[in-house]
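Lab notebook: predicted structure, single chain.

Context: the supervisor wants predicted structures on file for every construct in the current expression panel, including those that have not yet been purified. This is the next one on the list. No modifications to the sequence; it matches the entry in the shared construct table.
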Amino acid sequence: MKKFRHGFLIFLIPALILAFALASSTASRNERATTIDVETLYTRGEAAYQAKDYANAIDFISRAAEAGHAKAQDRLGVMYEHGEGVTQDDRQAFEWFRKAAEQGLAEAQFSLGIGYMNGRGVTQNNRQAVEWFRKAAEHGYALAQEALRYGDAQAQFNLGVMYDNGRGVTQDYRQAVEWYRKAAEQGMAGAQTNLGIMYAHGRGVTQDYRQAVEWFRKAAEQGMAQAQYNLGIMYANGQGVTQDYRQAVEWFRKAAEQGYALAQFNLGIMYANGQGVTQDNRQAVEWYRKAAEQGMAQAQYSLGIGYMNGMGVRKDEARAIELWKLAAQQGDEQARRQLADRGIRY
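Prediction complete. Output recorded below exactly as produced.
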């Protein structure tokens, strides 16, 4: 009996091994087929997404995401975040980012860090934010490296600039506005200035001159020359405030005295036209000169006009031609026409 059982076992075990091997081979083929199908789903979904065909995108992407495709999970998170093809849902976005992040996808790790930093879809947690930023940074993700390199407001401002200019990331004015606002609300003058610019031009936000003025004012009162100049422009044009040339001159002067060329040039214009100040060609020339010395083509042209006509300065045609050549070389059309009319090459 022992021999019989022993022989039976010897006979059975290879059969079981063979059956297991066949099953494993079949499973492996199925797994490869599934992987190909999932990749195809993602590829089709991503193509639909880029074409803004969100109905098809959500169909393909969600199926790939549920099958465990990391990039599909990240894309599904983005779609929930922005309400593209689905009802906007920060919690769902966060959960899909987490699934992709846990698979090591740097973009998703960064998005998870953003969620924790801002408390979007999850309880706000700076430690977790830094942890996920670090993971993404270790994968070489530039935005995460920026976020870790600087303090909160500076990092937020830098992220805004990156989204604004499309540096290292797809250009996205809405994201730029969001990051500028976070830094601006912490009192960062540069972010306040840039947020004002976004409102003034309607980039990433509905155009609103009053909001632009408010943000420019906050930065200008901190001594930010660009904001002082921009606030002067708003007063000069009556955008977001009642037109007031005296206020325009005041803000132009503050920026001009800090060496801001555009403000120097515009202050010269105000003196030349007698807007907000007593008309004074000598003062106009002096401010044009300061801007021209910084290489500003418009100021070089205007200073040349002064020399050609003896307005605010002793007449000097040779000096006028010299200045127009400098301006023309930078592409100033008025200077080019003046030279062309005189048959002068530059």
